What we know:
Blueprint: H1 2-13, E1 22-26, H2 36-43, E2 52-54, E3 57-62, E4 65-70, H3 78-84, E5 103-110, H4 122-125, E6 128-135, E7 148-150, H5 152-155, H6 163-170, H7 180-193, H8 199-205, H9 217-231, H10 236-253, E8 266-270, E9 275-278, H11 282-291, E10 296-297, H12 304-310, E11 317-319, E12 330-333, E13 336-340, H13 345-358, H14 365-375, H15 380-383, H16 388-394, H17 402-408, E14 411-416, E15 420-425, E16 430-432, E17 435-436, E18 443-450, E19 456-464, E20 472-483, E21 488-497, E22 504-505, H18 507-513, H19 520-533, H20 545-566, E23 590-594, H21 616-621, E24 637-643, E25 649-655, H22 657-660, E26 665-670, E27 679-680, E28 687-688, E29 694-695, E30 701-707, H23 710-717, E31 721-726, H24 733-739, E32 749-752, H25 755-761, E33 764-772, E34 784-790, E35 795-800, H26 805-816, E36 823-827, H27 842-855, E37 859-862, H28 865-871, E38 878-886, E39 892-902, H29 910-919, E40 929-937, H30 952-970, H31 974-981, H32 999-1010, H33 1012-1025, E41 1029-1042, E42 1051-1058, E43 1064-1068, H34 1077-1089, E44 1096-1098, E45 1101-1102, H35 1117-1143, ...
Parallel strand pairs: 1-4, 2-8, 3-7, 9-11, 10-11, 23-51, 24-37, 33-52, 35-36, 39-40, 43-44, 50-51
Antiparallel strand pairs: 3-4, 5-6, 5-7, 8-9, 12-13, 13-18, 14-15, 14-18, 16-17, 19-20, 20-21, 21-22, 24-30, 25-29, 25-31, 26-30, 27-28, 32-40, 33-38, 34-35, 34-37, 36-45, 38-39, 41-49, 42-43, 42-46, 47-48, 49-50
Helix pairs in contact: 1-10, 6-9, 7-8, 13-14, 18-19, 19-20, 20-39, 26-27, 29-30, 30-31, 34-35, 35-36
Amino acid sequence: MLSTRHRLLSAALSRCRPMTLVTHSSSPLTRPFSSSSSSSSASSSSLTASRSSSSSSFRMLINGKQHVVDNPQPDMSLLEYLRSQGLTGSKLVCGEGGCGACSVMLSGMEQDASSSPSSASASASANKLAHKSVNSCLTPLLAARNKHVTTVEGVSESQNFARVQRAMMENFGSQCGFCTPGFVVGLYTGLKNNPHADPASLMHEISSTLCRCTGYRGISDAVKQLSEEFRAKPLEPLLAEANAEKALLADLNDNDNDKNNAKSEAATFAGERATWHVPSDMKQLLALKAKYPDARVVVGNSEVGVETRFMHKRYEHLIQPTQVAELMRIEQVDDGVSIGAAVGLNDVWTDLEQRLGRCTDGQGRPLQAIIDQLKWFSGPSIRNTACIGGNVMTASPISDLNPVFIAMGAKFVFQSAAKGERVVSARDFFKGYRQVDARPDEVLVSVWVPFAKPNEYVRSFKQARRREDDIAIVTSCMRVVIDPSSNVVKDATLAFGGMAPTPVAAPKTAKALIGRLWTSTNIDLAIKELTQEFKLPSDVPGGMPEFRTTVAASFLYKLFLEVRQATKGDVDPRELSAIRPIPPSRPHPVSKRIKVAREESEDMHPVGADALHQSSHLHTSGECVYTDDIPPFANELHGALIMSTRAHAKIKKIDVTRALAVPGVHGVYTAKDVPASNKIGAIVHDEELFATEEVRFVGQSIGIVVADNEHIAHQASRLVEVEYGDLPAVLTIEQAIEEQAFKEIYKNSIVRGHVDEAMATADYVVENTVRIGGQEHFYFEPHGTIAVPIDGAREMEVWASTQNCNETQVILSKVLGLDSAKVACHVRRLGGGFGGKETASVPYSCAAAVAAHHQKRPVRLILRRDEDFASSGKRHPFLGKYRVGFDKDGSVKAVDVAVFSNGGHSLDLSGAVMDRALFFSDGSYNVPNLRCRGFVCDTNLPSHTAFRGFGGPQGMLIAEGWIDEVAHALRMDVEQVRRKNLYSYHDKTHYGQEVQVHFDQLWEQCRKNADYDARRAAVAEFNETNRWKKRGLAMTPTKFGLSFTANMLNQGSCLVHIYQDGSVRVSHGGTEMGQGLHTKVVQIVAYELGIPVDKVYISETGTDKVANSSPTAASMGSDLYGMAAKNACMELIDRLGPVRAKLGRNATWEDVVTAAWLDRVNLSAYGFHKVPVDGYDFATGKGTPFHYFTTGVAFSEVEIDCLTGDHRVMASHLVMDVGDSINPMIDVGQIEGAFQQGVGWLTIEEMVWGDDKNAPWLPKGKMSTLGPGAYKLPSIDDIPGEFSLQLMKASENYPAVHRSRGVGEPPILLSASAVFAIRDAIKAARAEEGVASSYVPLDMPLTCERIRLACADRAILGKVAKDPANVQARGSW
């Protein structure tokens, strides 16, 4: 397929007309498709009055090859179809268009929206070749009719653009690789549209594509490189390729034998569950809506796609109106602009920007208000397809655009076949929650927006959790008319989203403004009125009542300042900081990486080299195979879990009758069907595979349905009837403390010195509480497994996305009643893990295997994103209660801390996580007297589990909390207090282990790299001259102990085979999930054997190759499996030594291997390594838990908006002691990725679940953050504006493999520098208000809500809260 496209393009470049090749493909068997006869029958009922053809097939191009799609289903996504055709490079991650991993480029001939179809230029403009990146998970298959789809596999076939993939590889822009196809396609699209695009334009093209691994720096560097390279290229070859594509599209559209494929023809496609209509003119569109009033009009499918996938709605008729000219144009009408309802949002943006340049006297201000909202409206791939009419008709209460339409008095133009045209004012249109003044038979044709009149000022605002691609918390547009001669407000409309069930105006506040002078005094009165008009109740859906009201009022104040400035009124210069935007990181962050190489005399190549990730070429080409990319097995079935909808309840009855009656369902299995043990668990077996008598959290598995395909399985799973009897639920740490609901099995503590005596003699004692939110792993590849029974289910093989092959094998053998030797687990690679697949993956493999056991057929179980979020554990929320005694010079004398974690419904790894939190409760500080006690709370949530850092980050954050309060109490610079209490080289920890780290070197180097003193002075000056923007900075250390604290896991094995041709195959017990473990092991093996890295190959991890492996976790992968590989190689070298000596020094590696085989030398070796630590005994308080420590120091500078809580990391400088790095660039990627993941955790990633106190609007225990729409990861826009990383070798690390240090987890707490920089900025804001002496407890994440409420201003927050200095946001902990 791909070579065909290459030949076609080559032919076109030679000015030869390409031959059209056609592939017929029936709709894939993963959906319940109708037969041809049923399609014909359904389409015969189409509108006879319309000039519409009906067909059971259509044509499209995929990677340059023409496809005829037979029997297309209207409710099938483009992604489903592509993957069914073997194009698995595009990934299903979220299913809601929120991550970009499914991106493909959709190309076609389009007419400029600003060109009228009747104009003389219409013909020319219709020849425009448009390239758009789209989310294929939402794009209907039928929307690709007449289009050219380019997937990541197709990018590599373009000789001109394959450089995109190479740039991503060379800049280490991929780690796990699951998101990489989205970035490649996005950059490819940007360069196709503008080969000479600057970095800012290319960054914008990928701004809504997310990555969980890299921290984006490698991707950002690839962008810069591509921009430089392409701007130096001649355009002629690129234009020739575009002409070739036009020729292919012309062939597609000119096919006389396929009238249904002709763009000018109306078309109907009837499927089993829905019919897709494509009217070609307004008459046909209105006739369809008259006949099918319940039909949904679909353009981008961004709303309908989510409704059908997650809300399980079904629409029998779908109408695509993009061929109706009246809905596809933008034109000036009267004193305004008429925007066709079906025009894409990016096309609206482009057109309005052009019109704005022609506007005079401020008449374009409404257009600018729309553009300002579109900048942050979703991402480019959604805006490429979503339309303006969809935004109106959806009537979202948090709409970005509808407040603009209300404020400007926009008109919505409707038409119907029966009553013709009807015009509705936007101010009268929204009637209730998602209820509008639109009749069922009407179609929204256009939106008319008036130009601004003289002296009319318009401004739109939005505040969200994240700038890029995020739904609003509060959005607004306001307009005021000011008499220039009197400065009196003549008219005003203030419109808001996020303040009511509908977009709504604030008439009382507007009335308070009209007729009054535009002065600060009157604005102050208006703000007070607004806070009363929008006084939200404490249980308002969505929460955050104080914040939402405060932000709405803050927007009004920003408007006042902007208009005041525009009208030349007097404004305090310090106040103007309110309307100055926070500087973005784009177009490209200033960045550098400083690496310390090995000694030049010590040639250990390839160890120490920046070898590319072993799978990077597969990541960027889309050829990487993950679990769900494995081709279907013969007779394969698909599974869907039956999940609890209650947090805690008795199961009274399970009725599977309706599920079994669904055609295509083969079985429903519950606890009674488990062959052996239904009891499972990581350490203690306190979980059930399938719930029996009681459910203990929302999302708990009750059973599994297996069917012919995934859709049938999910449909049937929702038909299983479970009758519950609700029981009381414990959901938060504070509720658990109140009810003393703890895991009784856990009672560990550590005590050093004499805490009470030291506390009594300290100069000062303070006490407080630190709250730390959990974190969703958001590995891009969801949990998934394929279970394959062998020999009548007497053996079982599973292919799983797991970090723990051994645990999967052990638990699975107990569930099935098989010996472990008869169960094999295979892992090729993971699309991310971060600890979330260490134990939490096991139940899903067991569920699939139980079904496979009964069916004696392979069963594939791939969780949907919302199912994954609902049912799997997260990073543990923590709460720390501390007392700290200290002297007046800042020396900490004693700390007493009680540490609580939210463990969830079972123990899982919570005990070990708490152990590490206790080990890390000293932070990086030498405390002579320290007592820490751990409590694991027993709650009705999914069992929280391993996550990068494994409790250590939470323990360190609590320590940073008491260090921060010590500095606050003494009014000292917190950096001085940190530096004063840092460990020295020979100091011992509170558990008695010598640290042997050089914090002094790291601290001073970071301080130097950041130019700390100059920055501190600049921040002070900035804060003095800016009232509403504040900057802060912080330096924080990290100390991370390396080893499993469960000592039996500190072992690893590796099998090395040398083949007769000299190639080497390595199998070890670790799994590759993006961290570069396989790459490092390959480098080690290549060095030890003295051969090139391309001679060494690692395929997969499997229990049938390496038994009894430890999980790939604790940053121990390289230490365990690198050392085991080294040991195996040393054994092989010993065996080969005599052969080499016999052949002489000039013998090649291949000669030696061949001679050894002929001499019957064993060319396979099994290496083993155990870490030389004795572990720690909590009962005696003795032992050594860690092999060594990895340390680092980070500096960050931030800027916050005191009116909205928005923030930006302006600069970050990191220094890490990584020893002698095996692969410096892979270590750099791990450090940068961990840093950004940590910043996300502590600032914008907030989990919310229902409980009576914090989220009463949700059902108890139900998560509302079940995907990227509600749960926000950092985007590429969140890279620090200035970013440096230095790798140091502050001390030798002889115990580890080649003197390296583990780096996967240690850098996560470098992100604390950003959090405490934000707190530093907040302190400046509070000092402005005269409340600097009041300490704000440390609650994380520091979201925009918490930042805004902590700023304590009396001017606005003081009108919402009685005590603005002590307003705290609620949260789920």
